[in-house]
Amino acid sequence: MAPPVAPGTVQIWSDLGCPWSHAVIWRLWDARRRLGVEDRVRFDHHAFPLELFNNEPTPRPMRDADGRVAAQLAPRAGWQPWSAPDHAWPVTLLPPMEAVLAAKFQSLAASELLDRELRRAFWAESRCISLRHVILEVANECDGLDVAALAEALDDGRARRALFDDWAIARTDEVRGSAHLFAPDGTNDENPGITIGWTADDSPAGGTTWIEADDPTAIEGLVRRAVG
């Protein structure tokens, strides 16, 4: 089962390379700001590592196709087609997800900021966030994050166990996908307010994705419940 959610916290299970989670987390930051509770609510990130579930990288055609649709949900989140060389496409996203968990040793605030900036670096700037030096470059762009301490945590692997512990929990029925959010009172929702449709076809992505329904305000309910 998912760990208990502390008061004043929204627990987030996601994969950094999941476009739906990029849209959801952008909306989550927006909702917290609109409600004026930026000093009262923190985001507690956990890994839902799709490549470990599937025993392969998420196919780029699928990620690109889903990204074009997910961009409609949060257009200001920063999206662009991959513009770096093909060989720079990150084949694994475990290192940056481990870095987000490692930043928790500093604070949840440091972790949530690194998570957001790594997503921006990947989705909006075509940076290969699986590389150590890129992770640390992004960390240097995060105000208040101790980059030397993060580098030390990455190099000694102290958050690696946490990543695989998250994977074990993510394989239970309680955590259903990326992104799945939990509030302190037990309320939870996968991709809050969003219903995604998919039909198999002969396209490179293997299918066509669309948004069946969307309630942009749904995520505010989870933030309000975190406040209590």
Structural class: alpha+beta
CATH homologous superfamily assignment: Glutaredoxin
Gyration radius, rounded:
17 Å
Number of strands: 6
Discrete helix count:
9
Poorly predicted spans: none
The proportion of residues forming helix, as a percent range, comes to 40-55%
> For this entry, what is the oligomeric state of its chains?
single chain
What would your notes on this structure say?
The chain is an alpha+beta fold. It has one domain: 3-Layer(aba) Sandwich (Glutaredoxin), CATH 3.40.30. The protein contains nine helices and six strands. It has a four-stranded mixed beta sheet. Strands 5-6 form a two-stranded antiparallel sheet. A hairpin with a 5-residue loop joins β3 and β4. The longest helix has 17 residues. The chain is globular. 38% of the residues are buried. The model has no long low-confidence stretch (mean pLDDT 94).
What brief labels describe this structure?
43% helix, two-stranded antiparallel sheet, 228 residues, alpha+beta, Glutaredoxin, single chain, 4-stranded mixed beta sheet, 14% strand
